[in-house]
Model the fold of this input.
Amino acid sequence: MNSARTFGHEVRTLATPSAVPVVFIVDDDVSVRESVELLVRNENWKPEPFASAQEFLSHPRTRVPSCLVLDLSLPGQNGLELQKQLSLQHIDMPIIFITGYGDVPKSVQAMKAGALEFLTKPLDYNALVNAIRKALERSRLALAQDAEMQELRTRYALLTSREHQVMTLVVSGLLNKQVGGELGISEITVKAHRRQVMQKMKANSLADLVKMASKLRPGRPAIDLT
Amino acid sequence: MNSARTFGHEVRTLATPSAVPVVFIVDDDVSVRESVELLVRNENWKPEPFASAQEFLSHPRTRVPSCLVLDLSLPGQNGLELQKQLSLQHIDMPIIFITGYGDVPKSVQAMKAGALEFLTKPLDYNALVNAIRKALERSRLALAQDAEMQELRTRYALLTSREHQVMTLVVSGLLNKQVGGELGISEITVKAHRRQVMQKMKANSLADLVKMASKLRPGRPAIDLT
DNA sequence: CCACAGGCAATACCAAAGTATAATGGACGC
DNA sequence: GCGTCCATTATACTTTGGTATTGCCTGTGG
Done:
């Protein structure tokens, strides 16, 4: 009986385990697109080639692991600009840059902006495959975490403002009576709110709730990408 | 009375607020060392010039905010090798690379390994100053977090193995009686251990303890720097 | 106007957590 | 052997948390 433990929100939904990863390819050079496409197909991924940033952006978003093989120099919006735009739109897709003209400042800029890899032509088959593999793996992780965060935020949004306040104070370690004191309400009312919070957040224990709160408001950003 | 809240381990010691930041400079070219030294002095930081990686490594570690301005190509151990060595030794010092011969693969490698900036000669005064400023700011943060983690780990090390077990199960959300069931001991014994855990960890509440446990064992590494 | 949701509060009761105190036995080191 | 630390358990009691049920008030929207 004591072996039947439940771990609340730790039970995460697997993110489409059977989905075929998609590799977006943005390059104005047809021959490059085709060779990368071939490579992608060889590895049993799905290639999605585009000749410009605009074309790529007009493509609908998917919900499968994916990454972007991006040419640095493009007609119209160039690779770095596209990278920035994706970042601004909070589209977290791993990017592998490819370029014919090595340019240290641009490569550094790309890497600082979070690019996963920066390869120069002529492309090394293995290097590109490995980079894509790693990118897709990261994408998988990001998708899973994203789904979890989405779930959490959805539940959190269901709380009333009072319940938000109570939750904040409770996970800060205050006793019910102290929460009541802070908010100017009675302890029994705090209990009622607290109960609602636990139910709406689907928390099985206070420990659970504290962990959820930590995820909802990361005190320290993992890394600052200024 | 209710305004006198305590937040346990959240009270962190300020990391030497008045310490002068140190900028280590490693370059085999005397003129570069001198010009960077001048720049550093102008900004009221303390320069520490070295002509080689070996010299730098033999210098004693300090406990003040610091960063490293590092030439890519050096006699003996080169910049990238030094970066790797520091990483292996878990010496987390922000690195700003400088180099005369732009090399995209090397710059990418450096950035992937966590370099903060990668500048090419001739050095732009403002770019370098800004990079150093950001590096020192990051160093300050890292030092503070490091000190906090050190504190936590020290306290955690004071727990007996039984107390470790109890803490783990408690922060996973189990009730005392359930913890007792898991460990095959009585509830009252769990209470005794739990009490010890709270005292030794200096936790003011269960919420506090859960947060500490989260910091001690990051379920998901913030970023994987493979 | 009425139904409904949110916020508040009370009584009453049970479960769990925390505190105080004490006691036993094993392991370890001096 | 003796002191110390660890682990264990017990009794007895207080505080806090959780649940059930009920009631009132208010604003919102059909």
